[in-house]
Amino acid sequence: MTDTVTPSRRMKRPAILSVTVTPTLNGDVCDLQDKFRNAIWQFDKILLTTQKVLRAAEVLQIPVYATTQSAAKLGRTVAELEPLLKSAVCIEDKTRFSMWTPEVQRHFSVEQQQDTGKSDVVLVGIESHICITQTTLDLLAEGHRVYVLADGVSSCNPQEVPVALDRLRAAGAVVTTSESWLYECMGDAAIPEFRDIAKVVKETGPDTKAALGGLLSRM
């Protein structure tokens, strides 16, 4: 059988990861702040998945965008993520719920200026039914493809999570897991980055199992 899907998901050049014919892949980290640490269901599991995704982003040179929600009141991004966000395109403080703020859009446009197509965007963070939902809907409205990682998003109320993911899936987002997404990004074990990504997957295996066991228990 001829493979009509996988070839278009292979990396076209080392600097930019292409997962469809032309677009750039981008990673968005939504509002993972200290004040939410004790309020969000399975917050520690969200951090594990986010760390994994950010490590992979470094290997695959995926642009990363991060936001905080009213940082003056709710605190900075948690310390565990700060070393992995040093190369982020931007870390934007916001009051609106969607990450798709004018400032993020501006940085996004600069990153996109070498491309002719839309982007694939992967989302991790909080809250699944508010900020993640509104960000996803805004990105879909702009024609981007959005991946929401089921082992990387949560809410204060765990019952909100499956409802939100069902809505986003119906709206056109791809709801998947971090490991599935990573291998879809690569598409081929022959790419130079495969060994480094496989190492990340192996080293984070127990964390991934814990995140899936905790977060998917309500789905």
Automatic annotation (TrEMBL):
InterPro entries: Isochorismatase-like_dom, Isochorismatase-like_sf, Isochorismatase_domain
GO molecular function: kinase activity
One of the Pfam families matching this protein, by short name: Isochorismatase
Isochorismatase-like domain segment(s): 29-179
Keywords per UniProt: Kinase, Transferase
Transmembrane segments: none
Statement: the UniProt record of this protein carries the keyword Transferase: yes
Family label: Belongs to the isochorismatase family.
Family annotation (PANTHER family): HYDROLASE, ISOCHORISMATASE DOMAIN-CONTAINING PROTEIN 2
Protein name as annotated: Hydroxyethylthiazole kinase family-domain-containing protein
Organism expressing this protein natively: Apiospora hydei
